[in-house]
Automatic annotation (TrEMBL):
Taxonomy, superkingdom: Bacteria
PANTHER family xrefs: HYPOXIA-INDUCIBLE FACTOR 1 ALPHA INHIBITOR-RELATED, HYPOXIA-INDUCIBLE FACTOR 1-ALPHA INHIBITOR
SUPFAM superfamilies associated with the record: Clavaminate synthase-like
InterPro entries xrefs: Cupin_8, JmjC_dom
Domain JmjC: 91-271
Protein name per the record: Cupin-like domain-containing protein
Pfam families: Cupin_8 (PF13621)
Length: 336
């Protein structure tokens, strides 16, 4: 099945000079070949994985990094074990010590996966961002770096838009539109490897008897095979399965949202709805579905049109102040 992923339709490609224009209008993934090929980190990695590690160490701050260490024989898949616990352990260590473990395990077939995920580039490195970054204009992007050995990260989605740049090694992204979530057989929404719900399907060995609708998901999938220097844009909420395919891999990504930072996360609202609505009697659930349609998914102006504008409170367009009032009210209610 792993090889079959490579036969999926490829993600469309755009020229590096057209990046900003495509980001402004994109509603589907696209690949930009060679976007970051001139980065010093990319150049170091092309010479060798050890040179890439030396370059990162020369910029790393003297602090502990969070690292995930998989079980030997897991094939780099960071996932659940048979009891739905994580099949990896988490630790904190200096980057030099982590890289020493990677050096020691290099070439071993039973080497454990070693994975540093979503490390804030500006907070943990000096001048790494300044010397290796993509100019995203006015977009207020969070730059993160992902470092590790061979890895397989289950299909998941993220709330922000995402520009993922391969700096060292090769990456394979398998991407699915937002509406394919039911065909990906998602796991628990609270017990997750990294805060996002993941697909329970093993993409290297799918069980179509247990997950028959996964065939439908594959009918809508696209694949991006990326070399060092290439980038892929993943729109907000698109599902993506990510493989680090070499013995050492580094990716730098940029997340940004078009919505203000003071807005709450939709995932939190869904969890609260599970707590408050899902297990109600059917007639009451139908009522709350209609209320959500009226106040949340429907015409917000029409829902409050009968109330004087100065008295609409949180039914008016949200502001930082009204968002803070809602947050405070929810905290008070949830603490009872």
């Amino acid at each position: 099945m792993a090889d079959a992923l490579a036969s999926l339709p490829p993600v469309a490609e755009v020229a590096p000079g057209d990046l900003d224009r495509h980001l402004a209008a994109a509603d589907a993934p696209f690949v930009v070949r060679g976007l970051v090929a001139d980065w010093p980190l990319v150049q170091a990695g092309r010479r060798s994985a050890r040179e890439a590690r030396a370059y990162l160490l020369s910029r790393a701050r003297d602090t502990a990094f969070a690292v995930s260490v998989g079980a030997p024989g897991s094939g780099g898949r960071l996932f659940y074990d048979g009891a739905m616990r994580m099949n990896f352990r988490e630790a904190r260590a200096k980057l030099a010590d982590i890289f020493a473990q990677i050096d020691a395990a290099e070439g071993r077939e039973d080497a454990p996966a070693i994975y540093l995920g979503s490390v804030d580039v500006r907070a943990f490195f000096d001048r790494l961002h300044e010397d290796n970054h993509v100019d995203l204009g006015a977009r207020d992007a969070l730059a993160s770096i992902w470092i590790g050995t061979q890895s397989r990260i289950a299909a998941h989605n993220d709330t922000p838009d995402n520009l993922a740049c391969v700096a060292v090694g090769r990456r394979r992204f398998t991407l699915f539109p937002r509406d394919q979530f039911a065909n990906l057989y998602l796991g628990p929404v609270d017990n997750t490897p990294a805060g996002r719900t993941i697909s329970m399907v093993d993409f290297h060995d799918p069980d179509f008897a247990a997950h028959p609708r996964f065939r439908e998901a594959l009918a809508h999938a696209q694949v991006a095979e990326l070399e060092a220097g290439d980038a892929v844009f993943v729109p907000a909420l698109w599902w993506h399965h990510v493989e680090g395919r070499d013995a050492f891999n580094v990716l730098v990504n940029y997340w940004w949202r078009d919505t203000p930072r003071w807005m709450a996360q939709p995932q939190d609202a869904m969890l609260h709805a599970l707590l408050a609505i899902r297990d109600l009697p059917d007639d009451q659930k139908a009522h709350w579905r209609a209320m959500f349609d009226h106040y949340v998914f429907g015409d917000a102006e029409a829902a409050a049109a009968h109330i004087p504008a100065e008295g609409r409170s949180v039914l008016a367009p949200l502001t930082p102040d009204s968002a803070a009032r809602i947050r405070g009210f929810l905290l008070q209610q949830l603490s009872r």
